[in-house]
Amino acid sequence: MKITRINNIQKMLEKEHSLSINHLCEVFQVSKNTIRRDIAELDKRGLINKVYGGITLKETDSIEPFTQRQSKNSLKKQRVAQLAASLVEDNDVIFIDSGTTTLHMIPYLLEKKNLTIITASVNVINAAISCATSKTFNLIATGGTLYYPSMAFVGPSVLHCLDNYNMSKIFLASTGISIENGATNASITENEIKKKLIQKPGEKHLLIDSSKLDVTSLMTFCPLTELNSIILDSPAPEKYVQYCKKNHIDLLVAPEEYV
Q1: Sign of the C-alpha dihedral, residues 9, 23, 181, 72?
Q2: Burial tier of 259 (Cβ tally within 10 Å: 0-12, 13-18, 19+)
Q3: Angstrom distance (rounded) from CA 173 to CA 184
């Protein structure tokens, strides 16, 4: 029955997050026109986004707005960002991810020479403009569609942009990490960008404050073994120390005297 099929499509989408029309036709053994009518009903309910060749699960407003996240653990985030910035060298080409911790790197990069920063984050762009002269950074914005909860650009154009550049270091943000589920993120659209960055050559550094340890969000963008370092504001539990040592991941802790 139509209602049963629509409900089953919804359940599948909640599990898989994206589905193609061809796959749905195979699963339910119906025509594309039938599936398109089912999709129209799900769209009317506000549950999906229609994309080329299929559908994705519509993200809810449960993602905390950037301004609210920015005010939490602010000093800890600044310390983490200061340590991350110390890894940057003259002539580097770096990517700075959208996030309330990575944003704080900018003031600590002002003395670097011939530094190129690539970013999809409106806040990183604004920070770079506000605290630097025009000759301080080479600043490259990815462009794309603005995703308001994180004030960052998303979409296929971001992925295409990233294909064009070689990066020496990539500084990533995460909603939470765990040994079991790796580095995770709450936004489906941003998750694709993070996965793309993990596939690029160059060092990968993850910046988090200690409140994000043992936190698993909606989607995993990489296992922790894909990272060169995890940068924290305070010492991690012993299980992380041992895991990182075994897998050759640098576990870096920002000194208390920072900031």
Answers
A1: negative
A2: middle
A3: 9
Query: For tokens 């991690």, what's the residue?
Result: 236
Reported as a single tens digit per residue, the pLDDT across 167-215 is 999 999 999 999 999 999 988 889 999 999 999 999 999 999 988 999 9
Report phi then psi at 222, rounded to 5: -170, 150
Q: How far apart are CA 164 and CA 145, in angstroms?
A: 18
Q: How far, in Å, CA of 12 to CA of 35, rounded?
A: 14
Encode pLDDT of 125-175 as tens digits.
999 988 766 567 899 999 998 888 889 999 889 999 999 999 999 999 999
What is the residue whose two structure tokens read 């989408």?
13
Query: pTM value?
Result: 0.74
**Distances from the Cα of 87 to the Cαs of 92, 108, 215, 252, in angstroms?**
10, 11, 26, 11
Q: Give the pLDDT score at 70.
A: 45
Residues 155 and 144 sit within 8 Å (Cβ to Cβ): yes
Q: 62 in helix, strand or coil?
A: coil
Neighbours of 171 (CB within 10 A): 29
Ramachandran area for residue 216 (φ above 0: left; ψ -120 to 50: alpha; else beta): beta
Q: Looking at the predicted structure, is the pLDDT value of residue 60 above 80? A: no
CA distance 77 to 92: 23
